[in-house]
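Extended Data, record ATP-NAD kinase
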Amino acid sequence: MQRMLTALGAVGVETVLVSVDLGGISAAVLRGVRNRPAKKTPWPHVRFVDDDAVTDSAQDTANAVRRMVEAGAKVIICLGGDGTARVATAALLAGPGYDVPLLSLSTGTNNAFPQMREATVAGLAAGLVATGAVDHAIATGRAHALEVRTGERTELGLVDVAVSTAPYVGSRALWHPDALTELYCAFAEPDATGLSSIAGLLCPTPRDKPEGVAVRLCPVEQAPTVVNAPIAPGLVLPVGVAAWRPLRTGERVEISTTRGVVAFDGERELELTGTTGAEVRLRADGPLCVDVTAVLSQAARVGLFRSDRTEV
């Protein structure tokens, strides 16, 4: 976080809003603000977003994003894994933050959606977008998202939606692939960790492709195809696959499993009780994401990091 603040200051960002947490990140920033030597690159003014009580839950992320958007944030930087990015995205898409760019950085358990970037480089890109130094049309792009509707409830997944015959939500993570029956992916990269790796090792589908993947799963002993997939860090398991196909943007698919749970980006969130049907749809209007490479390429082309000297 401190390297990111240095980079943000270097490209002219004046104010940074930092959420308050119980994990020590905000405390480290506060110590850095108090102890930073004057001779070093100045940091932006740091203001902590502490309007809401800290609950040490996903609600903290949602509250912080909402408060930052209300305060006029030009970019949201999200530190975490797929689950944290999903909560931040839901908060952005649900309100006036729809067009606020999101830069999601990998620090979580499952990290298929967040970018794996060094903090200084990420901070430079975020700062250039926030200050308007680069063209937003080039620097940002909409990601796809998976929408599940059941009754009056709607949930979003950024990477994958998995259906399991497990009887209740209970433990959040899915570690038993034999219970999985359906998997839908917004994108599927072969180097991912998590449930999307199943599709990524079957039919790699990059995130900029205008379609996702639908996979029908079954127990290994009944499967015509078995994939050895890294479904979690340090956990490579055989997964039975009955069939797979492309999932077109806008296509609605009825979830065939009537009793069980639906997991979004690897975390169980929704119970299927058999009383109400559920359907999944691949949306093209997901979060507006910062493309770090595109930002820095554009900045280099127009000379934002260069000083030309007429006299040497």
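Summary. The chain is about 25% helix and 30% strand.
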